[in-house]
């Protein structure tokens, strides 16, 4: 996507601002996708721990929706135009569609472990780059990563045995993780 800024925030040159907007837009796609995925799981989870997982996910959905709004507003602040349409998410994402439908709590939690790993890893990669470009956006990404890591811990707590081993250890896809956790 070509980014054409008419202006940017004082103290940030246009070249750096364009790159920051690209990083923000990538995270906007991810945040929109993640909050929809979490809501999908919320609606499709079944089993004996249904209510605990169902209720655990709603605050995560709301927080990640808020991330999307913050990311979009930062893009606009830097002189960009945030893109939040469903088609743009699908066209520009670097990850696969969430593939688990109606399934047990453990299967969904296993799949979400892999989802959170991907989202957090991409945030951390962007944080490294932002340290040189824009400490304000870097701070935003650090704050969002902190919350994502907390939510990931909530998911993983359901997947651990008493020794701390994860049922999903070694799984590289949602399907593998769901099967291992189920």
Summary keywords:
182 residues, mainly alpha, two-stranded parallel ribbon, Ferritin, ferric iron binding, single chain, 69% helix, DNA-binding
What does this structure look like?
The protein is mostly helical. It has one domain: Ferritin (Up-down Bundle), CATH 1.20.1260. It contains six helices and two strands, in the order αβααβααα. The chain has helices at residues 14-44, 50-77, 86-92, 105-133, 135-157, 174-181; strands at 45-46, 103-104. Helix 1 (14-44) crosses helix 3. The radius of gyration is 17 Å and the shape is elongated.
Largest sheet: 2 strands, parallel
* Poorly predicted tracts of residues: none
- Tally the structural domains: 1
Please provide the count of β strands.
2
In the CATH scheme, what's the topology name?
Answer: Ferritin
The geometry reads as: elongated
CATH superfamily: Ferritin, core subunit, four-helix bundle
Class by SSE composition: mainly alpha
How much is the radius of gyration in Å?
Answer: 17 Å
The number of helical elements comes to 6
CATH class: Mainly Alpha
Mean pLDDT: 96
Strand content: under 5%
Order of helices and strands: HEHHEHHH
- Helical residue percent? 55-70%
Strand order of the largest sheet: 1-2
CATH architecture: Up-down Bundle
Termini Cα gap: 40 Å
């Amino acid at each position: 996507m070509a980014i054409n800024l008419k202006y940017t925030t004082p103290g940030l040159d246009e070249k750096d601002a364009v790159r920051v907007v690209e990083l923000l837009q990538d995270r906007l796609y991810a945040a929109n996708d993640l909050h929809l995925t979490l809501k999908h799981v919320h609606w499709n989870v079944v089993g004996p721990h249904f209510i605990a997982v169902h209720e655990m996910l709603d605050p995560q959905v709301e927080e990640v929706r808020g991330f999307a709004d913050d990311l979009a507003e930062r893009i606009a602040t830097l002189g960009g135009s945030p893109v939040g349409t469903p088609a743009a998410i699908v066209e520009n994402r670097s990850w696969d569609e969430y593939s688990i439908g109606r399934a047990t709590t453990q299967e969904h939690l296993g799949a979400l472990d892999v989802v959170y790993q991907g989202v957090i890893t991409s945030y951390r990669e962007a944080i490294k780059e932002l340290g040189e470009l824009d400490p304000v956006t870097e701070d935003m990404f650090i704050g969002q990563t902190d919350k994502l890591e907390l939510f990931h811990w909530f998911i993983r707590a359901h997947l651990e045995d008493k020794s701390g081993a994860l049922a999903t250890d070694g799984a590289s896809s949602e399907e593998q993780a769901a099967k291992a956790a189920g």
